[in-house]
Amino acid sequence: MKNKVIGPGHYNNLLDRIANILVEARTKVVREINKAQVLAYWEIGKEIVEFEQKGKARGEYGEHLIERLSKDMTPKFGRGVSPTNLKMMRLFYQAFPIRQTLSDELEPILSWSHYCELLKVEEPLEGTAISQYANIT
């Protein structure tokens, strides 16, 4: 059986197609992980707010709760549950209290760090999603 010589043009075309498949797959994986993380952080924020409020319209924001959660969770989950990050999760839920709204906003994927930066804006730009749904006080 005779080995066929693969021309460089055909091989390079194959190499490019395979590389594109891998890049697209990796991009999808990163997006899905990011989306799962953002939704998990929203859920954590919801849990904190509901625990703090205990059925009241407005909660008493005890720093002790955030500090205790962070202290108890950090050994198992690492720095992702720092007091600062837990506060941002709480604020994130307050800014987007309706999960469907958040899910719709995730289509052009924003990372958790992007949401954190948006939450720091004191007066969101008019007409943006954050200005429509954020009720940050």
Q: What does this protein look like?
A:
It is a single chain. The protein is elongated, with a radius of gyration of 22 Å. The chain is mainly alpha-helical and 137 residues long. Helix 1 crosses helix 3. It is built from six helices and no strands. It is 69% helix and 0% strand. The longest helix has 46 residues.
Q: Which tags fit this structure?
A:
137 residues, elongated, 69% helix, 6 helices
Rounded mean pLDDT is: 81
Biggest beta-sheet profile:
none
Number of strands: 0
Number of helices: 6
- What would you call the shape? elongated
Radius of gyration: 22 Å
Q: Helix-strand pattern, N to C?
A: HHHHHH
Low-confidence stretches: 131-137
For the termini, the CA-CA separation is 77 Å
Helix content: 55-70%
Question: How much of the sequence is in beta strands?
Answer: under 5%
Structural class: mainly alpha
Short structural summary:
This protein has 137 residues and is mostly helical.
Helix/strand layout:
Layout: H1 8-53, H2 63-77, H3 83-95, H4 99-105, H5 112-120, H6 129-133
